[in-house]
Amino acid sequence: MGSSALPEGTYAGRCVFVTGGGTGLGKAIAAEFARLGADLVIASRNATHLTAGRESAEEVGARVLGLQCDIRDADQVRDAFEEATATYGLPDVLINNAAANFPTPAEDMSPNAWRTVVDITLNGTFFCSREFARRHIEAGSPASIINVGASYAWTGGPGFAHSAAAKAGVKNMVETLAVEWGPYGIQVNGLVPGLFPHDDMTADIRGNLDRTNEKDACQPALRVGRLQELGWAATFLASPFARFISGHTLVVDGANWQRRMLTNDPVVTVRDQMGRGPFDPAPRK
């Protein structure tokens, strides 16, 4: 895992609540907080994911509470924070990492697919942020929120219309809530990962990635990200060293989202990029 980005024990005696912290990027972020002494609360709908996240954090000696929670349900979110607070005290840091995503041409997307992704990614992020902030406002205590975003919140995301729209809302929430809650000592920032391949990628997203040759050469930095680098960025943003940073979204992608070409390749439809056949106009639910 390499070195930590901050002094040992930076988060000793502090509790960090991570949604979707049992797999992939969320697990990597949680592990870096654990290495710096934090007590962890990992929330997920999936019990297997909770086990994986807990084991990862316990490997570095952290105390971990795993909670099954569907963040689309504000009552479940409230109950999760109740249990977290009863166990470790009111969490000091909230990492809104949980999201739903899968590639699909917009014309194929069902209403339920749209609602599910927006409900988890956007509504769930708000419900967790609101519950966390209410408790700190009542307690009069400072706190930090980090929303994990995506660069297509700025650029649009062909093949990911549902997720791109939801992540644009998440980015705007960073800027809005940072101003609203700043007077209470609550900082709100965003963290956008670039390409960080990991074993927990869904099969359809990995399939798209597998169709990309020479992934390192496709990045301006000539390499993909290493998981601990995202954890280093998250632990900095929520640390005492970044208290005056709020309303900012930090992109950790080696400048990939800023890349522009002097000449353009021929346009390839999203359907062709994904290996889909011709559009079927049959009625869809």
Rg from Cα: 19 Å
Structural class: alpha/beta
- CATH topology, anyone? Rossmann fold
Q: In CATH terms, what is the architecture?
A: 3-Layer(aba) Sandwich
Number of helices: 9
β-strand percent reads 5-15%
Summed over residues and divided by their number, the pLDDT gives a mean of 91
Globular, elongated, flat, extended or rod-shaped: what is the shape?
Answer: globular
Written as H for each helix and E for each strand, in order along the chain, the element string is: EHEHEHEHEHHEHHEH
- Uncertain stretches of 5 or more adjacent residues: none
How many strands in all? 7
Give the terminus-to-terminus CA distance: 46 Å
Strand line-up of the largest beta sheet: 3-2-1-4-5-6-7
User: Main sheet?
Assistant: 7 strands, parallel
CATH superfamily: NAD(P)-binding Rossmann-like Domain
Which CATH top level class fits?
A: Alpha Beta
Helix content: 40-55%
SSE layout and pairing:
Elements: E1 15-19, H1 24-35, E2 39-44, H2 47-58, E3 64-68, H3 74-88, E4 93-96, H4 111-139, E5 143-148, H5 152-155, H6 161-181, E6 186-193, H7 203-210, H8 227-237, E7 249-252, H9 270-273
Parallel strand pairs: 1-2, 1-4, 2-3, 4-5, 5-6, 6-7
Helix pairs in contact: 1-2, 1-8, 3-4, 4-6
